Amino acid sequence: MHFLRLVFALSSASIAAAWTTYIVPHSGGNDDTLALAAALSANKALATNATILFQTGITYNILTPIAFPKFQNVIVSIQGNITYAADVKKTQAIVASSSFPGHWFTFSGTNVTLTGSQDPNWGWVNANGQKWWDAMQKVSSRVNRPHGWSFKGVQTGEIVNMKLWQPVAWSFSVTGSNNVHIHNNTIIAVSYSSSFPSNTDGFDAEGTNLVFENNIVYNGDDCLAVGSPASNIVFRNSYCNGGHGLSIGSLGKGGSVANVQDILIENVVMENSVYGARFKSWTGGKGTAKNVTWRDITLINVQLPIYITQHYWDQDVSQGSTNSSYQTSTYLDTFTFQNFQGTIDDSKGNGVTGSTGKEVVIFDLFQGTSKSLIAKDISTTTVSGSNVMVMCDSSTVSNDVGFKCWDGQYEPTIAGA
User: Fold this and answer.
1) Which label site among 27, 190, 260, 306 has the fewest CB atoms less than 10 Å from its CB?
2) Are 107 and 233 members of one domain?
3) For the segment 54-73, what is each residue's pLDDT rounded down to a tens digit?
4) What is the pTM of this model?
């Protein structure tokens, strides 16, 4: 697998150009978005060779979303704190509006840097997610939730040292971008009540030549979710706690064509997670996911370390079914799961119909939809001390997958040892 080296230095012409620093003004308890948006509209120079600075020592009120202009060589520096609106209903109305840009913060352009503070007390973005999670016990409060930060179509960029506190849902989205480095960020989507922090994805990735590293994520959904199209994606040297795993997908919804290739996920600690490595595609999907590797994954009380399913469904709408008239899904070509070490939490099941809750691997596949799948160097134990199990239908695989493919005890083969 070959990954292009990321280059984040500005061109010599850009360095030579005049540089502008704009300090975002703050006005008591008012919405600071308004003055910022007005300044960006009035002063076009702020879109090129500029720093937009949220000052340390100030807590800004970004109570309405902002779609920044198309940037060229711009740094947005979050040195102060930021807070979202606390009123759930008012925010829902904003998100429901036809003018909502899709995310609370939206970036586009070339050579775009979003940087937070290295001061532990500053640079925090508080989205008041707890209010939403508590309100979401009512179905009406599950709609029109604000997505957080979007890098959309960015050509060369960086997201570094950002700190998100209780994001409502879907933290960072990198879509249609190329050559972006996302590193040293912290996401804490932890509920302090019985309410679950639903859909609090850490990083959603679609694009090319994206590197995610040295990130810390506490959340209630995918730590990483790679969508389509995506190629040359690296996620490494990170820590994920409490979520739904290191995921490819979901892919192929509504019969759409997926194109995902050359994905490397390595050296990640997964703790108290539902899944470790996960692939999910919708029945009836098309296209291919090719050359995907998860390796050197440390498991600490993970319910299901390795899970492939081609029967994904919207869990908020209906229960999934393996009885489908399509019997097809996104094709899998060359998937490797290597060096998974640690413990399986078998105390509460893993949510997969027919499983024992003690599985280290579940391959839930249609016939003729995959090739070259292998799980090797797997060393796990259950918390209870029970035997480690697998679920796998041998009629759906075309090679030695590294373990005896059956519904039974995990028994590595020569290919998996």
Assistant:
1) 27
2) no
3) 999 999 999 999 999 999 99
4) 0.93
